[in-house]
Amino acid sequence: MSRQRSRSRSLAIQALYQWQMAGQDVGAIINHFMIEQDAKKFDTDYFSELVRGVPARLGELDLALAPCIDRALESVDPVERAILRLGAYELIEHPEIPYRVVINEAVELAKTFGAEQGHRYVNGVLDKAARTLRPLEAAARR
What we know:
The protein has 8 helices and no strands. By secondary structure, the chain is mainly alpha-helical. The chain has a single domain (3-141), classed as Orthogonal Bundle (N-utilizing Substance Protein B Homolog, Chain A). Helix 1 (3-22) crosses helix 5 (78-93). The protein is globular.
């Protein structure tokens, strides 16, 4: 995937974190990011889709993640929770993106924004989730 897509994910994590913590309106958060960021440096449509899609599908995403985590999702670090939800969204909504790419992008986000060993946790959870959400693709890779 392009640098612009990676940048879109990075900004989406920041926006989703803001949404999780402040409960601010998703549209207002998106508008703020569009004003503050250089639109040439990221895929604005993909950013908007992610920031709207995760809250809109929250119940489904959390249900998909629940069997893959070792505690209540609400007790997971808020940054890592946003990354896991974004990863689950991409696994479900974007089958054209290989699941390894989804996981690798999430791991990089966790290294940038998460706790010290958070990337390992994100990797493990999304790897388990991929086996359920993309069984054929995951099986072909094993």
